[in-house]
Amino acid sequence: MSTPRKPAAGTDLDDELRFAYLIHDVSRLRRSMFDRWLSPHGITRSQWWVLAFLTRQDGLPQSELAHELDVGKVALGALIDRLEVAGLVRRRADKKDRRVKRIFLTPRANGLLKTVWRANKDFNDQVLSGIPMKNLHVAGATLDKLKQNLLASIHGDTDAMGPQD
After folding, report:
1. Cα 17 vs. chain centroid, distance in angstroms?
2. Which of 8, 80, 93, 126 is 20–30 Å from 105 (CA)?
3. What is the predicted pLDDT for the residue at 158?
4. pTM above 0.85, yes or no
């Protein structure tokens, strides 16, 4: 059994716990509010996430898309089904392996995405209101380092996490 980690220099355990709770609460509240924000557009946050990811790599195999989005294949399959019924994506068999289904955006999705990108910008403007850009940079760098540490830990690379005080 490992020994409990000491809080970082200049903090106490309460500060670290508060920080962890804030990350969780902000993430939960942001997801909830973003779902409400997207509702008038007839799309959910989960559907938006799939569509937004496909704008970067349209035509990904469904299994790879599930991996990239860190969702189960069955859960993604259900999302893709709903997006397909809505006319926002289409599945096509891979040319080399017909068992592989690739997911493509439709022209209708591209139109919706333009509208939702604007809604996303308005949403972020409201959520980030009153926060100086320099604070966003510090928060972003902090969250990026947290993400790197978590990924390193998942992959067993504790040396990449850096020294622990």
Report:
1. 23
2. 126
3. 63
4. no
